[in-house]
């Protein structure tokens, strides 16, 4: 893997090798284009979100590859739309419901698709903070 394990974001340290490899290779390539820094990291996360989704405090492979939210769909140097923070907002409502069930999101059976995306984002953030000891 091009990047040291310890240098990866904590959510990736808890993720399968496929996620770590996708992020590290994309970041290495982006650093060649943009130099080290935030832009290279954002580019690497964008690549990761095409193949993986955030589940709690780590990343898991997506059922289908592709953009995860409206911001990823628009792409380019000045993307429009909103990021869903690693939640696969383009997935079916059924898939989002199953993820919410897996993470123990309460009230999920009464939520719309957009509400499930928001609830998953919040639960992912909560679990990540807990794993980091924040």
Give descriptors for this structure.
134 residues, mainly alpha, two-stranded antiparallel sheet, 6 helices, 54% helix
Structure description:
The chain has 134 residues and is mainly alpha-helical. Helix content is 54%, strand content 6%. The protein is built from 6 helices and 2 strands, in the order H-H-H-E-E-H-H-H. The chain has helices at residues 10-13, 17-34, 38-51, 70-74, 93-103, 113-132, and strands at residues 52-55, 58-61. It has a two-stranded antiparallel sheet with strand order 1-2. Helix 5 packs parallel to helix 6 (113-132). The longest helix is centred in the last third of the chain and has 20 residues, at 113-132. The radius of gyration is 15 Å and the shape is globular.
Can you describe this structure in just a few lines?
The chain is 54% helix and 6% strand.
């Amino acid at each position: 893997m091009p990047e040291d394990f310890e240098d990866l974001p904590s959510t990736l340290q808890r993720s399968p090798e496929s996620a770590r490899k996708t992020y590290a290779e994309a970041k290495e390539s982006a650093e060649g284009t943009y130099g080290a820094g935030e832009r290279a990291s954002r580019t690497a996360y964008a690549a990761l979100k095409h193949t993986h989704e955030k589940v709690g405090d780590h990343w898991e492979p997506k059922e289908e590859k592709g953009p995860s939210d409206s911001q990823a769909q628009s792409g380019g140097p000045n993307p429009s739309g909103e990021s869903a923070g690693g939640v696969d907002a383009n997935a079916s409502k059924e898939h989002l419901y199953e993820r919410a069930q897996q993470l123990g999101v309460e009230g999920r059976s009464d939520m719309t698709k957009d509400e499930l995306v928001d609830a998953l984002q919040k639960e992912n953030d909560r679990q990540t903070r807990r794993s980091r000891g924040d």
